[in-house]
Amino acid sequence: MGDYVRQTVVQLKQLLSERGLPTDGLKHALIARLEENDENAKKQAPAATEPEKVEAVPAAVEPEQVAPVVQEPPAVAQETAVEVAVPSGPTTTVSEAAKKETPQQMPPPEQIKKMALDLLNKKLYRAEKFGADETQAAELKRLINRVEKFGLDKQNPLMVELGLVKPKPKPKPKPAQQGKVAKKGGKNRANSKRR
C-alpha cells in the first residue's frame, strides 16, 4: 500500500501495535510487515466465501437440475458479496477514524522521552562514528542530559523531528517595495555620479 510509505515510523508502529504485530525494526521492515498482514487478511476473506461456492458445484452435476442450480448460486453469491461488503465498510471507517485521531493523540511523556533519547543517542553515535565536530557531540550529550532530567515540551525542535508536532510555518518574506532608493553602491547612486 502506498499509504504506508507516506506515514512516519511512529504512525506505522502505532498501526502495528493495534494489529498486535511486533513494532521493532526499520521503516521498510515495518511497511513490509503491514503489507504482509493486509495480504493475509485479503486471503482469509475470500477463503470464507470459497466453501459456499464449492458446495454449489456438486449440486450442479445432475443434468436435470442444471438450470435451477445455475440460477440459485448467483443469488447466494450476491448475498455473500453483500455480507462481505457490509463488514468491510465499518472496518475502513474505523481505520479512517483512527488515522484522523492518531495525529491529535500524544503518547505518554515516558514514551516521548524514550523516543527522544533513542534519537539523540543515535545522532551522538553517528557524530562520533563519522568524526563530526567535538562541539556537536558535546552539544548532543548536553541535550541528552537535559531530556533525561526534564523531558520534552511541545516547543522543542525534537518534537517536530519525532513527528509528534507539526512544524510551524515560516513567515513569507515581504516583497521589495518599488520606488525606494538603493542603498550604498546601488544603481541609483552610480547613475547620479554620471550626470
In total, the number of strands is 0
Helix content: over 70%
Report low-confidence residues grouped into runs of 5 or more. Answer: 56-71, 73-95
* Strand portion: under 5%
DSSP helical segment count: 8
Helix-strand sequence: HHHHHHHH
Total separate domains: 2
Radius of gyration: 31 Å
- Taking the alpha carbons of the first and last residues, their distance comes to 70 Å
Q: Outline, from the CA principal axes?
A: extended
Largest beta sheet, briefly? none
Sum this structure up briefly.
The chain is mostly helical. The chain is built from 8 helices and no strands. It comes from Huiozyma naganishii (strain ATCC MYA-139 / BCRC 22969 / CBS 8797 / KCTC 17520 / NBRC 10181 / NCYC 3082 / Yp74L-3).
Written overview of the protein:
InterPro entries: SAP_dom, SAP_dom_sf, SAP_domain_ribonucleoprotein, THO1_MOS11_C. Belongs to the SAP domain-containing ribonucleoprotein family. GO terms for molecular function: chromatin binding; double-stranded DNA binding; RNA binding. Residues 4-38 form the SAP domain. By secondary structure, this protein is an all-alpha fold. The protein has 2 domains: 2-101, no CATH class; 109-162. Helix content is 70%, strand content 0%. The protein has 8 helices and no strands. The protein has helices at 2-6, 9-19, 27-59, 66-101, 109-129, 134-150, 157-162, 187-194. The longest helix is centred in the middle third of the chain and has 36 residues, at 66-101. The chain is extended. Residues 56-71 and 73-95 have low confidence and may be disordered.
